[in-house]
Amino acid sequence: MADYNHRKIEKKWQKIWEKSGIYKTKEIKSKPKYYILDMFPYPSGEGLHVGHPRGYIATDVYSRYRRMKGFNVLHPMGWDAFGLPAENYAIKHKIHPKIAVNKNIATYKRQLKAIGLDYDWSREINTAAPNYYKWTQWIFLQFFKKGLAFQSFEPINWCPSCKTGLALEDLDGNLCERCGTLVEKKPMRQWVLKITAYAEKLLKDLKLLDWPNPIIEQQKNWIGKSEGAIVKFGVRCQMSDVKNNIEVFTTRLDTIFGCTYLVIAPEHKLVSSIIRQLADQVSNLKEVEKYIQESKKKSEIQRTDLAKDKTGIELKGVKAVNPFNNEEASVFVADYVLGSYGTGAVMAVPAHDQRDFEFAKKYNLPIKMVICPNYPKPICPVLDKAYIEDGHLVNSGQFTSLTSQEAREKMADWLKKNKIGGKTIKYRLQDWVFSRQRYWGEPIPLIHCEECGAVAVSEKDLPVKLPPIKSYEPTGTGESPLANITKWVNVKCPKCNGPAKRETNTMPQWAGSCWYYLAYIVKENSKFKIPMPTGRQENSKLLKKWLPVDFYVGGAEHATRHLIYARFWHKFLYDIGVVPTKEPFHKLANQGLILAEDARKMSKRWGNVISPDEIIKNYGADTLRVYEMFMGPFEQAINWSADSMVGSRRFLERVYKLVSSIIRQPADQVSGVKNSNLERLLHQTIKKVTEDIENFKFNTAISALMILLNEMEKQSQLSIVSCQLFLKLLSPFAPHLSEELWQQLKAQSSRQRRGSPKAAKLKVFKSIHEESWPKYDKKMIKEETYKIPIQINGKVRAEIEIETDWKDEKVKEAALANETVKKWISGKEIKKVIYAKNKIVNIVV
Ligand code: ANZ
Ligand code: ZN
């Protein structure tokens, strides 16, 4: 018998599948749709390693399964080609990013195809292609027109190595997420998207989603909703009365009678304005200014680190007035308070907040307890740390004796009545810094005119193409390299026709991935037909049909970046009437990492990278696929193991050998062989594999197939039908081998039926992947009936036969109806019938 020649088989079927277009998604009305999506890769220069395709293989298995179940499946793939990773790679290797990216795409595509993934390549997209980014720019313009894209001059995070401004989401602590460099604060002009306008919707609609809990939690924390109050403190100086107020944000208004000082963030506008207005009254002005300078060097993470010693400096000569009791409190500038959160100022309550407690101890500030844990005996303990729980109020004027909860309500009402504050909600989420001072991104389609300000490029002039350029390295001046191309920069104002300049910043790398799942749906003849808000009906029908993405699979590292950004864009597009659903991705799963055999991340640096090319060449794509699905639970990280990989290869070799032996048998020997035990196992396996695939438990699905194979190998004779069922179950995992054997079996069985080898020639090619998914027979999966004993008053008197799925009542009835039992109990009163499941029935008379 010829050996299992994976190379020949895999090449052959990949060609035939491509030619016959079986994976192309057609707009079939009669079938229900299923949209399954992978997080698309940015094509890096190294190509794929064996860890990358774990998720792609999983969606491939799932989409094949769904197709066989009768769904019209959309399973597309594309390239996230703009952005820093691609550009940094290009700079390092001194290749123009466009050339580098295209080369890398070619490599990725070849590798993905070699794995036998069932993508509909006619819908392939590339975020860096002008026909694609035309629409990225178009969506940006819609934000702009609604006032949700605006210019800001606030200091932002700047990576001195990548030479660009970054969004909060691009940081890893206080390091640049891309290159690990410590970021700085730099004031500069930038475009910002008002994602905070969607904070509440982003939070609320999480409950519509079927996502893993950890991701939901991360999104909640990132949005960071806080319900609290704003309070205005008056400002008083020794010599003059001031009109200034200090507004603080607090979640613990109930503690306000314990406020003994105020803290303002060093970057707060109020600090500079107090210094300006009251310079002569702040006695330690020099020191204060020095402190402010120092704090600029620290990152937010350093500043808010709970373990770090807190520093600050008093504004001597300035006092704040607590509106609740008119008491004076000193005012500090301290960098543990952030300018970017709340109001940038805090009422410090050392008795009930740990940071304030430590600060108060250090600077010898009064600690006043106002929440008592020992109510109704208001004996407050001596504190060695802050008491941070709720309790009852003490020393709090008219509010004394209320619970914390009641006090927060009543005090907020009081503030509102006196017009000095009230309830408010704050979010941690910050607006999205959306401009980059880099070359390799979508140009922001705006024009600056001295007369008209920032003006949108006319929609008919989109895309604003990224001009070809020789020197694309970042300048570091805060300007993008595009600023140097005067020919491109100088244009006429679309409004007044006067001289104007193009915006030279580009969009961040996350822009293109905010709508790519829509692009796959509306791609037609290499154009994208995004429906205009005013409605191009035929296109919105497509979006209506395919949205939302039913199942989205990718890495958990995107929890608070891509998945927040894309939800934000989608919600905006929903509000302007472009998309029909509130959320883009209904169900989500995250694959675990595949680590190297040494348990480290696969990386060039460690020299432990395994390429799928090698595995496919030596063992086959089907082996790679089966192994990656079998290696362990899908969401868990796991080490690569060459030995186990070879085990998967053995499994496929055994399948090949067994089915080949059936194919070679004379026809009359394989037909009509029935074996009830094997058939039962077959149906049990259909049930198990079906349920496991549904639940992304691929490893246990494959082990069920292994058990079935063991049994099949033991049979002296096997029916073609059982082989066919086996192959169908295996086909999502090992599509090439299953197809090869399936087609051979088909030829064999039609020879049998028609008796002529000629008739066996197939006229129309029908792939196993277009066959229907096997159904199990409920009756078949039951174990045979079995016997249990019946005791009467402690002695075994009879035996009955029962079936596994009988309910307890039915077993008891059967016991009482037994002829022997009837004799023993006739004329007696039955006191109790006890059934010990699957073991024994006890009758007490
Ligand atoms: C007084 C107080 C008393 C507070 C108390 C807490 C406990 P979350 O829940 O995270 O929203 N805060 C407000 N703005 C701040 C800023 N810009 N930088 C640092 N801290 C700030 O936290 C809100 C609480 O964090 C607020 O409530 C405020 O301290 C502080 F027993 O006000 B609290
Ligand atoms: Zn960087």
What does this structure look like?
The chain is an alpha+beta fold and 845 residues long. The protein contains 26 helices and 35 strands. Strands 12, 13, 14, 15, 16, 17 and 20 form a seven-stranded mixed β-sheet that branches. The mean pLDDT is 91. Zinc ion (ZN) is lined by residues 159, 161-162, 176, 178-179, 181.
Key structural traits:
845 residues; alpha+beta; Rossmann fold; Isoleucyl-tRNA Synthetase, domain 2; 5 domains; 4-stranded parallel sheet; 26 helices; globular; binds ligand ANZ; binds zinc ion
Please outline what is shown here.
This protein has 845 residues and is of the alpha+beta class. The protein is built from 26 helices and 35 strands. The relative contact order is 0.11.
Mean pLDDT: 91
* Principal-axes shape call: globular
The share of residues in extended strands comes to 15-25%
Summing up helix and strand content along with how strands pair, one would put the structural category as: alpha+beta
Please work out how many helical segments DSSP would assign. 26
The count of strands amounts to 35
Radius of gyration equals 35 Å
CATH-defined topology of the largest domain = Rossmann fold
Largest sheet: 7 strands, mixed
What would CATH call the architecture of the largest domain? Answer: 3-Layer(aba) Sandwich
CATH class (first level) name of the largest domain? Alpha Beta
Uncertain residue segments: none
How far apart lie the N and C ends?
69 Å
Number of domains: 5
Q: Looking at this structure, what is the CATH superfamily of the largest domain?
A: HUPs
Name the bound molecules.
ligand ANZ, zinc ion
